[in-house]
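Structure ticket #2291
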Amino acid sequence: MARPMNPLPPGPSALRDFAAEMRLLRRRAGTPSLVLMRQRCGISEATLHKAHSGRHRPTWEAVRGYVEACGGDPEEWRASWIRLCAEQAGTDPRYCAETLARWTRTGRYTPPESVTDAAELRRLLQTLLKFHSRSLRTLALRAPGYSHDTFGAVLRGDRQLTASHLKAILLGCGVHSLTSLDAWFDVLGQVDATQTMPGARIMHDLRQKQEAQWAHDHDVRKVDQTVEDLEKEVNTFQTRQQAAATRGRARDIDALLTAVLTTFDTLKACIEPTVSDTTAPQLVQRHLDVLSTFETRGLLPGRRFLDAFVPLALPHQQALQSRAHEALHMALTFLYYANRGDLSPHEQLSLLPPPQPKRSPAPRGRRPRGGRPMSSTVPKSVG
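Resolution: structure written out below.
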């Protein structure tokens, strides 16, 4: 039996109404447990719980998985979710409805052609931030180079929106494909002619670095959400094992394994459509074949495979690549020890190597009278 849901936050709001509709859909489906819903849609329990909490706007992937797990039609919810995004962004829903629908449908975050001035471009960038649920502080962490105060001043219009600011904002929001970036810099050049040449230089440098951009915007965003779900499952698994919790241990292992397989499927989806576009298609195809072999035999890949496979899926997203590699490595290590039966619920689990005792610094050589310091390579006397 599913546990009762937490009460919705007080006060009327569009987010609260949207969460109430999601809860109603779940009740009409017989109130399935979050575990069962996760098995149906492949989205973690934490993300599903957060989707109907009424405190955070869920991503479209979370809404679609939630609705599918409850037997609903996701397309019937798309318009409501787009209106919610537009209202939270503080913009006119009629203005943003077409843009948000296109972003959701295609996964390419390009601006509309109707942008006429810098103020409208700043409002559109604010909508992009809200669409990705990015705060200014999160943006500053994901796009190093500017503080959250600088981003706030730029988006308010207190400072000029330069090409460098635009690049940082777009990369911080997960806009990575050259086609999408080029469209944004074209709009910036139209509303501010002084930024035409700086934007062209930035695009030239990006093309030199990203001659083959494999992952599109939607792929990167989906990988980001999937890796975040995996990190939560790893933290939950480690916390419960360290607490020697015997209850729900098999469920924890199943949830962690599901998150790992979902992450591999997402990374695989980033590579498959572009095998023919890479400079080494045989190498990429060989890694895909190895992953399929692991899946067929019910095996889990090891560290060496991760070292080669993750960079192939995310060649230009270094921060996300590092997060995905670390989360997968930790999860696979946990599952390896669980398969061996070494995860005893009566013992503290720690897969990190024990801290090495600090060695006392070697004594410096004495300085003989009138001579140089004694060499540290002189063997010590025994006895």
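Closing remark: The longest helix spans residues 217-242.
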